[in-house]
Design a protein that fits this description.
The protein is mostly beta strands and 65 residues long. Helices cover 9% and strands 52% of the residues. It is built from one helix and four strands; from the N terminus they run H-E-E-E-E. The chain has a four-stranded antiparallel beta sheet with strand order 2-1-4-3, with no helix packed on it.
Length: 65
């Protein structure tokens, strides 16, 4: 391996953008989390059913700087 290949490698980003989905209605939004953290689960207001519901991480959307 040449020295130039080592110098041109990009470092992995610390944060990623993930898609969160409501367990009740299917409402979705995006959230930022650290790459090495566990998958997110949180309780947030769901505008479709007008109540608080559980949101789970569905998939990774993209990497952030």
């Amino acid at each position: 391996m040449f020295l130039t290949n080592v110098l041109l490698k990009k470092a992995k980003s610390k944060n990623i953008l993930v898609l969160m989905e409501s367990a009740v209605s299917g409402h979705q939004f995006t959230q930022i989390r650290e790459r090495l953290a566990d998958k997110l689960e949180l309780i947030r207001f769901d505008p479709y059913i007008q109540r608080f519901s559980l949101y789970r991480e569905r998939r990774r959307v993209r990497s952030l700087n």
